[in-house]
Structures are given as structure tokens and as C-alpha cells.
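Input record (one chain):
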Amino acid sequence: MNLLFTNFRLPSLTGSALSILAIGFSLFSASAFGHTIEGGDANFVQAIDGPAPMPFMYLGAKHMVTGYDHLLFLVGVIFFLYRPKHVVQYVTLFAIGHSITLLLGVLADLQVNAYIIDAIIGLSIVYKAFENMDGFKRLLGFELNTRIAVFVFGLFHGLGLATKLQEFDLSPNGLVTNIISFNIGVEIGQILALSAVFIALSVWRTSGSYLRHAFATNTALMTGGFMLAGLQLSAFFLQPPI
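The corresponding structure, as predicted from the sequence alone:
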């Protein structure tokens, strides 16, 4: 799945690499500390009293499509996957992982620090980009089991989703139905977003620039992951004491 680079010379950041890096730098904007459920969506979530499967499915899909941290990780996961069946395998492992902790986190009221979880999510992007650059084998002399890593990081991504919902005082009436619906919506959003990404990557692979700029693109992806993790850790250490 990985590309073995013959050297570590960093090519110029062009095309898709610049696009990914631009996404990373945009994280310093107003939404720098992570995507949240806010505005009208937040008011709706807090006002619900009873089962509302369709609205929660919509919210889940919207949250995933706008969840740049989850999407950047998945871009790294599928970057060197050429066959749809392999994409399905890895994305399914990720989906199982984040479904477990999303449901457990909300329904069992599993309390975790949102900043730490989001920092780990940022580092998951760093991990996948570094693996795509063949960094583990070339620099450290070993390779991690990618399938296990994707599943484990899926667990952390699910906790990240759970912390967003835990910010609200959710009514216990219809809670199970609503959280399951939200999770289904997340999967729908994930499928839609990744389908678009996979098509774009497939088109890009038809040109010679794909392999030429693969290292630079994953460098940009890693940069975005480090930025996300750094922002979240900064917020964690600067938060006022309880």
C-alpha cells in the first residue's frame, strides 16, 4: 500500500499538496479548536425530547462532512489504496471503531477530555501520513499493522464525536434511537465524502504528477495533523483550572 521513496528530498508543494496544506493553515481561523455542533443545530439538539431519527441522521452526516480532522485521517488511509474493495475494508474497520466509542461514550456517559482526544486525532493524521511516506520502515526499521492502527484510531475518533454530543443536555427520551441515528448519519457522510475523495485521487493517479508529489502531499497532510494536535494541546494546558 505504501510507496517506497528512493530518497527523502522534499519536492515542491504543488497542486493537491498545496490544497491539503491550505486546509491545515485554515485551522488557525475561527474554528481552529475543532468542529462542533453549534448555532441552529445546537439549539435543535438541546430541544429534542423523543425519537427524531431523520434529523439526527442529517446532523451526523453533516458533522462528518464538515469534520476536517476525520476526513484528513481518512484521506491518508485511502491515499495508496487503488481498489474499492480495499477502501471498503479499511473504512469498515475505522467505522466499527468509531461506532463503538461514539455509542459507548454517549450512552454510558464515558467522560474523557475533549482536548486530549482531539490531539490524539490530530496525531492519527500524522501517523498515517508518516506511514504513507514509508517512514516507519525507513527510519525506525519496523512497520505497524495498518489495519489494527486504523481500528484503534477509529476508537479515538468515535470518542471525539462523543465529546461533541456530551456538550449538550440530551433528553433520555429517545436517546438510544437518536444516537444510533446520528451514527448512521456519520457513516452516510463518510461514504459521501470518501467517494468524492477516492474519485479525485483516481483521476489524479492517471497523471504522472501523482507519484512525483505523493511525498510532498503527505508532508502537507502530516503538517496539518501536527497543527491540529498542537492547537488542542495548547488549549488543554491553557484552560483555566477547575
